[in-house]
Amino acid sequence: MIRLKDTRHSSTSEFLSSAIGIAEYYGFSHLDALPRVAQSEKHRPYSVAKVESEITLARRDERALLSAARKCLTNSERGRTTLAWRTSASAAAPGLTLELHIVGPSSAIAEALLIVVAHAIAEESGVAGRTLSINNIGSLESSNRYVRDVGLYLRKHIESITPTLRPRAASDPLGTLVQLVERGHPAISRAPQPMEYLTEEERRRFWELLEYLEMFGLPYELDPHILGSRDCWSHSLFELSALDQESGSQVAFALGGRYDPLMSRFARTPMSAATVSIACEIRGKTHIKREAPKVRGDIQPAIYFAHLGDEARRRALSVLENLRRAGISVHQGLWHERIAEQMTDARKLATPYILIMGHKEAVEGTILVREVATNSQDAIPLPELSSYLKRRRVGIPRT
């Protein structure tokens, strides 16, 4: 949990207002403001009570994910990507949690975008000594082998486990291991590690996420002890922590990962979703100060960032973050696989300018700035992009 005395904010509302502003820059919208999507009886999401009765939860914070998953599904159109935020009570009371959800994309760009946004929120707030830890539990098939070996390992060390936890070791080995990790049990250091059970395809998928982080320049460490229920999570799980100035230890303030199994259970069909939850203590005002919605013309001209190819998409996150820090407004659709889909979005948004990065530009460290009206374009070195746009008042809010 983020302690406000370790930030530049004096109240919870200040922190949340700053954090939500960053999330909305990257395209997240208030979950409650999204229109409810009409669902047929066949596709109507199951109730939270029904799903909870059918699954096993390994972590305390996973219960809040159930209501969030159903809400996201109710407000998400099938086949389209939804980026949403909401606030909820923190599992570690007293506190509030800002949840970010991406529903739709199955690629690692979803987790990468969530990590980058969470990192930007913490950095903007002045949270020092940040550490990003990542684990991967793979798919159901690979995690089955992992959980089987965890069960065998726990039976060998059953005498060292507290009597109250021993019955759970037989029925829920993974949940038991999570409890032992939280208690700092000495046996966890020799327990099986889930990444050793990944298939080649799962390793390739995981490496895709790590490539995004390395291209962005965000340090990370692999941590086999970041775990969760297999009924909720698959593939990547991650945790952001900060240095506690008093104890000198790292304290987690954000948890996230891919929750395809849970979303698919609610949807009754395979679906992809990822989330990150950022916890903040309650201090002072909690009411979020919201700016009036911007009308067309407040930002003139608007920009759309379009990428072409994997190398460009890997480079895109750092470009977008640099533009955000420079105060330049930009739309993007990093979850799209094809350039045609992005150009369709740009036309719908009627953006006068489009930033285009292909493989050649990504390798050379440049980007094309195209003016839609004349179809003319300039190739701009990335270090000069912000100043180039500012000189032309592109993407700058009107004063």
Structural write-up:
This protein has three domains: 219 residues, Bira Bifunctional Protein, Domain 2 (BirA Bifunctional Protein, domain 2, 2-Layer Sandwich), CATH 3.30.930; 43 residues, no CATH class; 89 residues, Anticodon-binding domain (Rossmann fold), CATH 3.40.50. 38% of the residues lie in helices and 20% in strands. The strands form two sheets. The chain has an eight-stranded mixed β-sheet with strand order 1-2-3-8-7-6-4-5, with helices on both faces. The protein has a five-stranded mixed β-sheet with strand order 10-9-11-12-13, with helices on both faces. With 399 residues, the protein is of the alpha/beta class. The chain starts with 11 loop residues before the first helix and ends in an 8-residue tail after the last helix. It contains 13 helices and 13 strands.
What is the residue-averaged pLDDT?
90
The radius of gyration over CA amounts to: 22 Å
CATH topology name of the largest domain, in short, is BirA Bifunctional Protein, domain 2
Q: What is the name of the CATH class of the largest domain?
A: Alpha Beta
Number of strands: 13
Tally of DSSP helical segments: 13
Architecture (CATH level 2) name of the largest domain: 2-Layer Sandwich
Percentage of residues in DSSP E strands: 15-25%
Major sheet: arrangement of strands: 1-2-3-8-7-6-4-5
User: What is the string of SSEs from the N terminus onward?
Assistant: HEHHEEHEHHHHEEEHEEHEHEHEEH
CATH superfamily of the largest domain: Bira Bifunctional Protein, Domain 2
Q: Kindly name the structural category.
A: alpha/beta
**Rough outline:** globular
- End-to-end C-alpha gap: 37 Å
Low-pLDDT segments, ≥5 res: 292-300
Share of residues in helices:
25-40%
The major beta sheet can be summarized as: 8 strands, mixed
